Each structure stands twice: as structure tokens, then as C-alpha cells.
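Can't attach files on this board, so I'm pasting raw text. These are the components:
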Amino acid sequence: MKPLNKLVLLGAGLIGGSFALALKRARLVREVVGVGRSLANLERAIELKVIDVATQDAAAAVVGADLVMLGTPVGQMGALMEKIAPHLDSACIVTDGGSTKQDVVALYRHHLPRQLAHCVPAHPIAGSDLSGAAAAQYGLYEGRRIVITPLPENAPESIARVRALWEACGGIVHEMDAAEHDGVFACVSHVPHLLAFAYMNAVLDRRNAARCLDFAASGFRDFTRIAGSHPEMWRDITLANREAILADLHTNRVQLERLIALVETAEPAALTSYIERASKARSKWGKSGG
Amino acid sequence: MKPLNKLVLLGAGLIGGSFALALKRARLVREVVGVGRSLANLERAIELKVIDVATQDAAAAVVGADLVMLGTPVGQMGALMEKIAPHLDSACIVTDGGSTKQDVVALYRHHLPRQLAHCVPAHPIAGSDLSGAAAAQYGLYEGRRIVITPLPENAPESIARVRALWEACGGIVHEMDAAEHDGVFACVSHVPHLLAFAYMNAVLDRRNAARCLDFAASGFRDFTRIAGSHPEMWRDITLANREAILADLHTNRVQLERLIALVETAEPAALTSYIERASKARSKWGKSGG
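---
Top answer:
C-alpha cells for the assembled complex are below.
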């Protein structure tokens, strides 16, 4: 595969930085330019050889780039797209690492209408509790799933290029449409986070909350781990994927009503099969390497 | 402390077996008699020196015992109490390791009305995915919380004796009344399990359940780990602690309505403070060594 001549990271953090490191190791990129708001983070990114050049000027940075990777929170992507739009080479590929896709697709359509042949949305299913350039690591994408949600307008060779680059990072690339992506991740990630926040708030509302927390043990620890997640990030994800999340929350409300009815009725066999269905599926998923 | 002369384990599994091992190591018991339904498990318990004598006859076993520990699932305790009632020494202490307490208290009152001065209900907050005598281990209770829920009828010296034995096992003993115990554990253990089962069933009801499970990652893994728990055990706990669980499920339903309203309204500041409250509390709990 021909190496990239110039890769621009808009946001030189965990996602973009780890992408750059993997491509550098695979000798698939000549120069990496990092753009970010924090000078300290850009300095650190250079020290750690995550990027070769740092700048705070996104518009200037993308001139002559053959690939631009948006690695910021989704909330910052629109403004960045607007800034870079007039300066992109006509063949420059633009991709991103956003964890929601319908909203990013809408941003591409709004801000980069003339670039759509080369805007290939992506979502690498990998992360860390850490963020920033210092968290970027070789191997973050090794064996991890990368979902790409190509646009109908995409040039097949741009899709192929993005796919090949992620595969060079060790990722396993899946294609899906953006709406299915958002439904799947509402289900397996966004809604579990929101349910964990809600459960935690229900505990805090109790008269004896402190005593409860005092006696909480390993089941509680695992069930609520994701309730410790970053508030602004999860506010943004919630707002970005609001429709899919609401549909799923309604499904979960119906499910909760069903559970309450089962406990009220207290019919042992019905309760056993209800629990058994969940338990079997979870055990099977665990054994499948999930 | 004076050692026990004869400790009888009704159920020679993880809970009773680990209690016996700890007391043996502390030289606080002369003879341990194990009673169980599975001959293979009793044989294994003898091989592993968890017990010294095995029998399937609970009534004969308790003759001359100074402490009887009910280490079976709560569902088997009533029948065992009925069997041993006529054979207990008048000063014999009876305790248990049941994870619900109001129902066990009711069983003591029903089956052992003349022994109530010495029936001291307990719940060691320790466990393992494994069960049976082979899972019994030294140190299971080291640094773990042990809740005892004494009866008003209890002789102070019987409470003190049970407390001292658990402390000798390395446990940290807390006293609570049985109703508070059941409320606290509905909140921090039983309801999280049921919510995890319900969430898993909501996923399975989706048209694209297989695809969702295929893309589920670490957040899903932790949130649903307890959904893989043992169906009969959790059916029994649910039925045993039904009132407290129902109260808590209703609280969680109200909380879910509130979350849905927040996502529907999509007011960023309100959503942030909602998430922040949960996230701060969870992080604080995690740092406190929870």
C-alpha cells in the first residue's frame, strides 16, 4: 500500500494519536501534523513522537494533506469541518473516530458537501479511561472492531483506503449504515451508561444511601463501574444519539414493568425462566470471548 | 476465648466450610461435623479437612453441638430447623449465612421457638462464583463485613459469642435489624442483579440482538456480569426478599421515568448535573476502597 504523505490529526489525543502511532510503525505515513487546543498536549505529542509537527491552525494544517482524521469529541467536529472546508485538496480523505455516526454524517453533509466522495465516517471500538496524547499507544486497535459507515456518495477507492489503513492498525473493519450503528451502540453502550447513572441516582435518593454504599460489594462495583464515566462526554453522546437512545430507554422501561409484574406475581417457574434466559445469554456471550 | 467443642455445619459448602476452616486455624473448634445431601461433597469435605465427620442425619448430628451453622440456601433452612429442633441442647447457638434475613428470622421463630435466645442470624458479605466444599477456603472472611441481625430475644452472651467467632475468622461484624438489612441488600445487590437480567432480556428482544452482542465491549461486559448469575439462586433470593425488592424496583422505575424525561427534554445543563451527581458519587465510592 502507498504510504500517506501527510496525515492531519484534528485532536491529537488517544484516538487520533494511537491511529498515527500504528501507521508510523507500519511505515504507512511520512508526516503527521497534530492540531489541538492545548499547547501542552501538542508539546507532549511531539515529545512522544505521536506527531511530527504541531499547530493550532486547522485551516493551514490541512493544506496538502491526503488524510484528515477528526479525533475530537463530536461536539467540536462541526466547527473544525467548517474551518478546513476551503483548504482541503479535492482528493483528501476525511474520516473521524466519533462514537455516534448519524450526527457526524449530518455534519459532513452540511460542512463538506463538495468533499462527500471522500468523507468516510468511522468508529473504532477501543478506548481507555485515559485521554490526551500521553494516552496514545501502539496496539490500541490490535484485534479491535472498527465500524465504518460509508456514505452512498463515497468513492469506492476512498472506502477501500480507510478500510486498509484501519486494517494496517490491526483493526477488524465492519461496514454498517449509520442508523444501524447508532441503534447498536445505543443498545450496548449508551443505554447501559445511562441506566447505570439512573441506578446510582436512585441509590443516592435513599434515606439510607450512605449505609447502602457502605455495604455495596463486587456485584455493585461491576454494575456501576460505567456510572463513574465522564459527565460532559456522556451528555454529548446522549444528545448526539438521542433518538436511538430514547427508543431503547422505552424498551427498557417496558422490560422493567415486566420484571416488576413477575416479582409481584411471584410465580417461581416464570421468574426462573425469565432469569435463565438472561443468564444463559450472558454466559454464552462471555464464553464467546465477549 | 473458649473453643467450640462441636460445630455442626448444615451444608458443608463455601460459606460453612470457610467458617470451619477459619475456626480450625484459630484453634477455636475441636470437632466439625458436616451434614449434606451430596455424599460426594461430604467425602471431598473430609479429604480437604474442612470437616472431621460426615453424616446425612441432621437430627443426630446436632446432639451435643454447641454451635450449629446453617450454610445451605435459605430455601432448605426451614426443613433443617424442623429436623434439628427436638435435638438441640438448650444452650446450643444456631446461626446461618443466609443472604436475606427477615425470612430466616421468620423461620427461626416458626421452627425453633424455644431456642430463640440463641438463634443469631448472620450474613457474611463474601462469596465466590464457586460452591461446594472444594470452594471452601482459609481467609474468605478476612477483612469482609459480616452483618448480624440479632433478635430481641437473643441472650447477650450468644450475640457476643457469634460476633467473636466471626471476628476470629477475620470478619468485621456489624449489627443491623433484619428489615434494614434486607432493604440495604435489595438496594446494593438484589435489584442490580434483577436490573441486569432485565437489561439482558431487553437486548435479546431486539430484532438485531446478535449484531448488538457482537459489538458489545467492556462497558457492557461489566454492566451485565451479574446477569450471568445462577437462576435458581436468584429466583430464591428474589422471592425471599420480595417486599424490599419491589419497593426498590418501583424507585428505579420512577428514576427511569426521570431519565427518559431528561433525554426527551434534551436540556444540556440538566442532563450534565444528572450524570455528574451519579458520576461523582460512584468515583468517590470507588476511591473509598469500595
